[in-house]
Amino acid sequence: MKTIAILFVNYGPYHIARVTALAEAYSDRNFKVVGIELARQELEYAWIANTEKLPFVLYSLVSDQLLQQIPVYEVTSRLIILLKNLKPDVIAISGYSHPAMLLALFWSQWKRKIAILLSETTEYDEPRVGLKEQIKRWLIGQYQAALVGGKPHQRYLLKLGMAKAAIFTGYDVVGNDDYHPEKIRLLPKPINQPYFLAINRFVTKKNLPFLINAYAAYRQANNQEAWNLVLCGDGEMRPQLEQQIAKLGLQDSVHLPGFLQQEELLPYFAHAKCFIHASIQEQWGLVVNEAMAAGLPVLVSNRCGCFEDLIVEEVNGFGFDPTNQKQLTNLMLKISSGEVNIEKMGEAALEHIQRFSPDYFADGLIKAVEYALAHH
């Protein structure tokens, strides 16, 4: 029996949903699935995931401390020991930015095992510099196949020299069933007014001052009928955002419930009227998947990696330029005015996101593994 190891920095709810689907898909094949995470907890994403009763074994290199508290050499040495013991035939590796991910790639080369890249990088995530791109081109050449989010991620790997036949899609999915309207609709209302919903870390790239300004203009244009705005999340920009909200006199209509775990977010998804994601830069934007899985129409920045694959203009939502405040304000007015059928749009969002399920991840990764085995 062959073993495939899936290596992530940290297993959150959607990593578990993906690898669970993979383990179930491989259950009647000659493959054993194991999960490896660098740490049970880390600073960037403070989610809590239930790791009990999983259909695969999950190994945590660091289980009792934050990843950022452990020296890199300690994490990498623990990974080497684990790989030596597990002897996986295939390693699916999440990106190449952390040293441990690179180590896993080089270990697979040394042991002549198969390495599959899991990637959601696009050409436009950040400025691309010649020398760095040359190194990356060499690095990409060391993987036997890749599983990516969608079209822009596929194009970037093609540009870096990976064969088109070696690139598969399905990486960026969540556990859609957890958000289904039928499952969450009876949850208590977090606020009684109709509202737009946004969920973000409060960091610069999420473009939240822009969103608040667009909302202020929307409220000014539609004062009597205006919906509220709920911004779930937390981060370094919170004091700045609170100051902006106060300056604009929006304290009664903009709500900041803080950082919430998946279960705590479900009531907000259940009763929102529309979801907004305004990032100036985003590799994918899984929160858009979640909103669509909850049956919400979506307004999504066209700089998000998910935009091209998830948004069908005027069918399940609208895209906008995240530097064009007036455009977003007008879309908010359009959505809340009754000019568009938001129920029908939400149903279309729910239908479309079913293609982006954990089974889609499993199918894509299995195809990537089969391709790599055939060409190894």
List keywords for this structure.
13 strands
Describe what you observe in this structure.
By secondary structure, the protein is an alpha/beta fold. It is built from 14 helices and 13 strands. The strands form two sheets. A seven-stranded parallel sheet has the order 3-2-1-4-5-6-7, with helices on both faces. Strand 11, helix 10 and strand 12 form a beta-alpha-beta unit. The two termini are 18 Å apart.
Radius of gyration based on Cα positions? 21 Å
First and last CA, distance: 18 Å
Name the structural class. Answer: alpha/beta
- Report mean pLDDT, rounded to a whole number: 94
| Count of individual helical segments | 14
Number of strands: 13
Low-confidence stretches: none
Gross geometry: elongated
Sequence-ordered SSE layout with sheet pairings:
Blueprint: E1 2-8, H1 13-25, E2 31-41, E3 57-66, H2 72-86, E4 90-94, H3 99-110, E5 114-119, H4 130-140, E6 145-148, H5 151-159, E7 167-169, H6 181-184, E8 195-199, H7 208-221, E9 228-232, H8 238-247, E10 254-258, H9 262-271, E11 274-277, H10 286-293, E12 298-301, H11 307-310, E13 317-320, H12 325-336, H13 342-353, H14 358-375
Helix pairs in contact: 1-14, 2-3, 7-12
Gist?
This protein is an alpha/beta fold and 376 residues long.
